[in-house]
Amino acid sequence: MKIKTSIMMLHIDIIKNRIQHFKYLLGCFLFLVSFYAQAGLTIDRIIIFGDSLSDTGKMYQKSKGWLPSSPPYHEGRFSDGPIWVDYLKEKLQQKYTNQIEIINEAEGGATAAAYEKDSWNPTYQVINNLDFEFNQYTKNYQFKANDLVVIWAGANDYMTNGWRDSDTVMLAIDQLITKVLLAGANNVLVFNLPLLSTTPFAIHYEPEKFNELKEITEEHNKKLRRLIKTRSYKHVRLYDIAYEFSNIMKTPTYYGFHHIDQACYKKGYIWRPFLNNYYQSQQMIAKDVTFPSESNQTRTLDEMSAKEVYQLLMNSSLANNPMMQDALPSQQVYYSHDRRAEKNLDLAGDKPESCEGYLFWDKVHPTTAAHKILADKIFKFIQQRYVNYYSSY
Q1: Of 12, 216, 255, 333, which has the fewest beta carbons less than 10 angstroms from its beta carbon?
Q2: Exactly one of 74, 220, 365, 371 is catalytic; which is it?
Q3: Per-residue CA distances from 374 to 95, 187, 319 (Å)
Q4: Can you give the CATH number for the domain in which 66 is found?
Q5: Catalytic site residue 346?
Q6: Entry's PROSITE patterns (predicted)?
Q7: Does residue 235 lie within any of the structural domains?
Q8: Pick from 114, 175, 179: which is nearest to 142 by CA?
């Protein structure tokens, strides 16, 4: 009897030791999971593809400092101050001490789809598209497994260029997602569009387009949601920035806004580099201007002289572009050689004394205050889903 009791006690001790050993291993596992989640190692880089809403100076550099005018535009940004990318970078640096790098390929005027094959409009000689931005990136970098690729485009397709084929836009976004994943990135975050009909451009400047822009934005966002659902949630997700904008506009005073449908900057569009050389600029454009045709190979802005860039930007196709026109010269200068016209010009360079309380800086672009709020929300989303997030997949 004593022998049986001793054997039973021995078995119990063995079981207890195994349980303690299992608890130890489980504790180590959970510690490692927590460590890697908190260490900010889930993503190493954020790569951004998009348009002027995300541009931190690419168009400004590409156009040799002529677009957008800085001042009044802030250091090549399409706003009166830093934009969401700048604020996000600052937050990441503060929180994760430069562990997460941002590479920004977004450029003002860029479309989602490539239209240069369908149109010889000189606009398409200047602006980029998602496919072109992808090619630009891969010339200098390679994608890595820990990259987070952000895609935010489509506004220029509908608002600037008047295209209404949302399927073409969806195809361009879908193709970029595929290319990015095949190239080695594991994480893609796609932004939808705020209602384009809520911009000062749609409300005050071209109200006849209000309903049309509202319908195409809603159609875009519905199709984008369906598109994202066809992808693995582990790799591709949607960021509902339309929802964030909607909340701001529903309770603007909570966020410090008192003007949600007016542009803060309403002055003329002559950009500063020409103020000191106004009359020479007039002589410069007096000569014949030629643009690419089917028999003439298209060149990039980087390959043009300053004079050629000026002539191209003066073209009415660009000057009438609502996503850019707040930084472009008034057409009355282009067509007038009367020096008396100078008295009637409202030149750029005089930044409003304050845009406090304004949601929009110009006809279509948010103020830096709005960008900061969006950056806070985007940062929290990225932090929860990609940095301090452990996936069980």
Answers
A1: 12
A2: 365
A3: 17, 20, 29
A4: 3.40.50.1110
A5: no
A6: LIPASE_GDSL_SER
A7: yes
A8: 179
Place of tokens 């479309």: 111
Look at the chain and report how many structural domains it folds into.
2
From the list 52, 69, 79, 166, the catalytic residue is 52
Q: Establish if 228 belongs to a structural domain.
A: yes
Same domain assignment for residues 62 and 197? yes
Are 198 and 245 in a shared domain?
Answer: yes
Do 290 and 369 meet the contact criterion of CB atoms below 8 Å apart?
no
Residue type, 28: C
Annotated catalytic residue within 80, 281, 362, 371? 362
Domain that holds residue 303: 272-344
Q: Say which residue the tokens 């195409």 belong to.
A: 216
- Co-location of 363 and 276 in the same domain: no
> Has residue 316 been placed in a domain?
yes
93 and 168 in a single domain? The answer is: yes
Residues 65, 141 within the same domain: yes
| 362 is an active site residue | yes
pTM attached to this predicted model = 0.77
The answer on 247 and 293 residing in a single domain is no
Residue 14 lies in a domain: no
Q: Are 159 and 213 in contact (CB under 8 A)?
A: yes
Q: Give me the residues paired with residue 358 across strands.
A: 259
Q: Which residue has the tokens 């989602």?
A: 112
**pLDDT one digit per residue (tens) for the chain, 393 residues:** 555 555 555 555 655 566 565 555 555 555 544 444 444 448 999 999 999 999 999 988 887 777 788 888 899 899 999 999 999 999 999 998 878 999 999 999 899 999 877 766 666 667 889 999 999 999 999 999 999 999 999 999 998 777 889 999 999 999 999 999 999 999 999 999 999 999 999 999 889 999 999 999 999 999 999 999 999 999 999 999 999 999 999 999 999 999 999 999 986 444 544 444 443 444 444 343 333 333 344 455 566 666 666 666 555 555 555 555 555 444 333 333 344 334 443 445 568 889 999 999 999 999 999 999 999 999 999 999 998 644 333
